[in-house]
User: Which sequence fits this backbone?
């Protein structure tokens, strides 16, 4: 019996390891939509692959323009203890290497019916690369994970937070901060 | 016994592999639905600098004086309805969606370290700041605070230019350091 249990555990461990090796970024990233797709791309994480994709071609901005994408991310049926992972694309339109800061930001304003959570803890937002340096004209995909502890009490049904992307500019120039809006609806 | 000894290294190896892969084993929880719009957000602002009292003036500033980023004159207030020619900055919405724009102005760095009063008015060691947009009534200028300023431009359509300017009223207390200082202005852009 003991040998059988040990054998089963070993097989299970190898199975998991092989599975991770094939999909190191997790299921939600393996279905990453092309930047040439236009809304909406829906991922129903119950099955870990896109449940539906409605898309049409759209023009990407010129390579010399810095941009981020997407502008809005809607997370539905969320609850404390749940995890939601999506990504943000950052494009460096400069002809030189540029360092960016990617981080959680309190919303400057919110959508109708949504609130900014006063009790929100910024550590609940995990930015996989918070200070990337991009090569000229490089586009980088940066996973963002929202993970709220199961014991956290969220009073609002709908709330919003932003992901801010700001390039390191020399002193004395007007800085540009591009913000992706994340709108959360609790279940 | 021999079989267990043989297996133990593999079991430990399996545990180590599990530990190693755990951080990247992130995914979205069951039943949580994510909908993203893969549109692009990007703007350009030109020019991206302003020397206060440096358009027609010397670049040196007086206390208790209101300066504008007005190409027609550093202390010339814009018209009742702000004209393009009275705005130094041009913002181009290069996004693929309408955008909202906010402009924050931080405290001065260096010199007398004058701070933003966040009230629009100046004080002994603080300055007041506003922003204004071409086509709007000048009285509707927007207070520029160091954080969370009100919205300057709402729902700017795709590919549309908008000209805007900045107003700063310097502190009332005389300068003591006589050292140049600078201030950081940040344009915050988000999808409407």
Assistant:
């Amino acid at each position: 019996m003991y040998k059988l249990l040990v054998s089963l555990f070993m097989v299970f461990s190898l199975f998991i390891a092989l599975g991770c090796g094939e999909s190191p970024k997790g299921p939600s990233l393996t279905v990453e939509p092309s930047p040439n797709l236009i809304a909406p791309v829906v991922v129903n994480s119950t099955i870990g692959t896109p449940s539906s994709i409605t898309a049409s071609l759209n023009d990407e901005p010129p390579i010399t323009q810095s941009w981020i994408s997407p502008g809005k991310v809607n997370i539905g049926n969320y609850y404390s203890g749940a995890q939601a992972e999506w990504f943000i694309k950052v494009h460096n339109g400069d002809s030189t290497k540029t360092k960016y800061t990617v981080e959680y930001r309190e919303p400057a304003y919110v959508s109708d019916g949504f609130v900014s959570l006063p009790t929100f803890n910024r550590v609940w937002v995990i930015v996989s690369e918070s200070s990337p340096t991009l090569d000229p004209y490089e586009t980088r995909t940066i996973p963002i994970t929202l993970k709220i502890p199961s014991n956290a009490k969220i009073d609002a049904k709908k709330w919003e937070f932003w992901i801010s992307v700001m390039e390191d500019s020399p002193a004395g120039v007007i800085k540009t901060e591009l913000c992706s809006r994340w709108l959360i609806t609790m279940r | 016994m021999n079989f267990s000894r043989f297996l133990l290294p593999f079991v430990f190896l399996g545990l180590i592999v599990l530990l190693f892969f755990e951080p990247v084993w992130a995914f979205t929880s069951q039943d949580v639905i994510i909908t993203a719009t893969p549109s692009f957000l990007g703007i350009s602002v030109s020019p991206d600098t302003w020397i206060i009292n440096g358009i027609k003036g010397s670049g040196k500033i007086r206390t208790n004086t209101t300066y504008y980023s007005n190409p027609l004159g550093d202390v010339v207030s814009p018209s009742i309805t702000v004209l393009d020619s009275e705005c130094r900055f041009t913002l181009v919405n290069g996004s693929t969606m309408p955008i909202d724009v906010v402009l924050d102005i931080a405290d001065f760095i260096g010199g007398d370290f004058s701070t933003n009063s966040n009230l629009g008015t100046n004080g002994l060691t603080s300055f007041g700041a506003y922003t204004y947009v071409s086509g709007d009534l000048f009285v509707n200028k927007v207070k520029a605070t160091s954080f969370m300023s009100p919205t300057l431009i709402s729902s700017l359509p795709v590919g549309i230019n908008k000209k805007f300017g900045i107003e700063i009223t310097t502190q009332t207390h005389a300068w003591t350091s006589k050292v140049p200082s600078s201030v950081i202005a940040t344009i915050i852009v988000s999808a409407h």
User: Anything to note?
Assistant: Chain A has two helices and eleven strands. The CA atoms of residues 18 and 175 of chain A lie 45 Å apart. Residues 14-57 of chain A have pLDDT under 50 and may be disordered. The first strand of chain A starts at residue 41 and ends at 44.
